[in-house]
Structure formats: structure tokens, C-alpha cells
Amino acid sequence: MRLLESVARHEHGAPAKQLAREAGLALPTAYHLLRTLVHEGYLRREKGLFFLGEAAERLSRSGAQQKRRSTIADALGSWRDSIGAPVYYAVYRGGEIEVECVADTPGNPAVQEWADFRETGHAHAIGQCLLSQLDTQGRRDHLDRYPVRSVTPYTVRDDQTLIRRLESTGRMQPVVERQEYALGTVCAAIPLTLGSTAATVAISMPSHQAERLLLAARRLQSEIDTLLGTLAVSISI
């Protein structure tokens, strides 16, 4: 590991003797370990210099992904505690709605996914918020694959009604749905358009708390604004 760390500090490569010295290893030991690391793909050797290999780069990407998830999870947990409601983070990636992280508590549980979130984007605030950020062709493509259908008696009834609702959504305004996905539940989603990525942070509440939904959504939006830079970096990883 010390050898890998030493190699990572040298963008233009480093020779075995220098790496052995930096890692505090005897040169024969360093040579043996470097050969093993090259064989396993963690390092590559060019003209006597050692560079990070593909296997080490995969580890780096995995670490970055874990850091991204940890950053988002920490933010969601903080918002959950301050607002007193489950908080969700979702993105639209590869033509699909992906709920990537949820922060809830036993006292304020998240909405159960009783109907596939990807297929029912027209019915929940997360999906409506993400679809509102797409262009006309993107929405049409999504609805061709996942047509509007009734999920509850309150679900939007047809494509055109949904599209009109999406088009009337104000930029960066919360998207609200009341019992359209799950009876007894109201939800609000805050749009996050960062570069080409459509993303959202959302909250849900029991319908008997509906009167505080918009106030909580505004508070969430205010707290998101204070961490927008961190979220932008996390989403782009």
C-alpha cells in the first residue's frame, strides 16, 4: 500500500529506487512487490518508471463513488432530522428514474415502493420533478416506455394532462403530489439541475400533515442551497 501511495504521488512515474526509499523498504523487497503489483494490474511499468495501473484506477473510482454516497447520505440524514420527515435523493440516468438514497426513521418511515418507482414516475413527486427537467423528446421517450396509468384514484389520468402539468411547473419550484402514488401520503420534490444531470431531493409525509408540506419543502430548498456546491461535485462524480 505504501508503494501504491508513493506511485500515486508521481504523475510522471518514478523509478524503483525512489519508490523503495519513500516507502521505507529494502530495494530487493520493493522490487519483488513492484513486480507483483505490475503482474496484478495495480501498476504498470514504462521505461523503468512505475505508474498506477487499471486495477488501482478501478479502486479509485470505487472510492469516489463511496465518498459520493456518503456525502449525500450525510446531507439527507441532516435534513431528515431538521425537517422531521423522510428525505429521498434521486436522479434520471440512462432513461431511468433511480432513487439512490433514502434517509428515514422508524417514527417517520419512507414510502414503501409497492409499485415500481421507475414505471410510475408520472404518479410520484420524484418522477414528476425529474420528468419536468427533461426536454420534450426526453419526456416523450419516457412516457412511450412507461405509459400513464392509474396507481391510485388521485393519479393523473393521461399523458396530455401530465405533460401540461410538467410544462407549467416553475423552474426550481417544488413539485407536489397528494396521494397520487400512495394513499395516505403526500410528497414534495425539489429540482436539482446540475449540468446535464436531472436530480431531485424529496420529502414525504402522512396526508394528515399535508398543511405543513409546502413549508417543509421551502425549508428543505433553503437548506439544499447551502450545500449545493457539495452536491454538485457529488452528482458529477
From TrEMBL:
It comes from Streptomyces liliiviolaceus. PANTHER family: HELIX-TURN-HELIX TRANSCRIPTIONAL REGULATOR, ICLR FAMILY, HTH-TYPE TRANSCRIPTIONAL REPRESSOR ALLR. One of its GO terms (biological process) is negative regulation of DNA-templated transcription. It holds the Pfam family IclR_C. This is Helix-turn-helix domain-containing protein. SUPFAM superfamilies: GAF domain-like (SSF55781), Winged helix' DNA-binding domain (SSF46785). The keyword Protein transport does not apply. Keywords: DNA-binding, Transcription, Transcription regulation. Residues 55-237 form the IclR-ED domain. The keyword Membrane does not apply. GO terms for molecular function: DNA binding; DNA-binding transcription factor activity. Residues 1-54 form the HTH iclR-type domain. InterPro entries: GAF-like_dom_sf (IPR029016), HTH_MetabolicPath_Reg (IPR050707), Tscrpt_reg_IclR_C (IPR014757), Tscrpt_reg_IclR_N (IPR005471), WH-like_DNA-bd_sf (IPR036388), WH_DNA-bd_sf (IPR036390).
